[in-house]
Amino acid sequence: MQMIRPVLLAASLLASASAFAGDTATPQVLGFSTDGKVFAFEEYGVQDGSGFPYANRFYIETATDSFVAGTPIRVRIDDEAAGIAAARAQAREKGDKIVAESVLAANPGDTAGWNAVTEQSADPFRMVVNPRPVFPPVDSPVEFRLEEIPFAPPSGCENLGDTMGFRLVRIDPTPGGETTLVHEDASIPASRNCPTGYRVGGVQTFFPQSADPVFAVMIAVRSIGFEGPDFRWIAVTGRL
């Protein structure tokens, strides 16, 4: 009996941990428009607490780092029995009216760097990449650094701990290279749902044939969830 009890206790703790897990959305880069003016990505998963499947699609104008009119597209099916595939299909159907899926698939760009939210050995606030897989490199390396900025809790986020915005800079790591501000929050959007932290998830680049190359920095947003910390995704875009 003394041998069995620790095993039963461990099993109970594991069951409790799995029963109270946050919701980590799965990100999926969809691609770019042919001219690189639009970047699109998707996140999807099962909402913690409700068990409802969801799929969100984001279409961003790369030059202005702003959403394309009529987006983001957010789909949630309020039925635990519904699958994620159904939510993704609905979001894709709506997104096809913004930029056709076939166009995005034909222009995926390059994943120059990627760190999953489960990665513990990488620096969550810094990523240095070769912009495209050409060796020996023909481009200068590109470095992005993220800094969290404390903000007063937005409405509805009181008494939930520190809430954070962020600043993102681009650094030319070559000798004498410049530092450029890419993004700095002036406030915390309500869509981030009481954010408590951020990490650089990846860098996607695209070199159109007849336009300037562009980038999208994927950023994971940690926020307060129903059963634990949630992770959602945003992207910051610009020209290389």
What does this structure look like?
The protein has 240 residues and is mainly beta. It has one domain. The chain is 14% helix and 41% strand. It has 3 helices and 13 strands, in the order H-E-E-E-E-E-H-H-E-E-E-E-E-E-E-E. Strands 1, 2, 3, 4 and 5 form a 5-stranded antiparallel sheet that branches. A hairpin with a 7-residue loop joins strand 9 and strand 10 (179-184). The longest helix has 16 residues, at 4-19. It is globular and about 50 Å long.
Task: Throw out a few tags for this protein.
about 240 residues, mainly beta, 5-stranded antiparallel beta sheet, 4-stranded antiparallel beta sheet, 3 helices, about 15% helix, disordered N terminus
Please sum up the structure shown:
The chain has 240 residues and is mainly beta.
What general form does the structure show?
globular
Tally of domains = 1
SS elements, strand count: 13
- Per DSSP, the total helix count is 3
State the separation between the terminal residues, measured CA to CA: 65 Å
Major sheet, described briefly? 5 strands, antiparallel
- Percent of residues in β-strands: 35-45%
The amount of helix comes to: 10-25%
Structural class from helices and strands? mainly beta
Low-confidence stretches: 1-19
Mean pLDDT: 91
- Sketch the topology as an H/E string, one letter per element: HEEEEEHHEEEEEEEE
Which value, in Å, is the CA radius of gyration? 20 Å
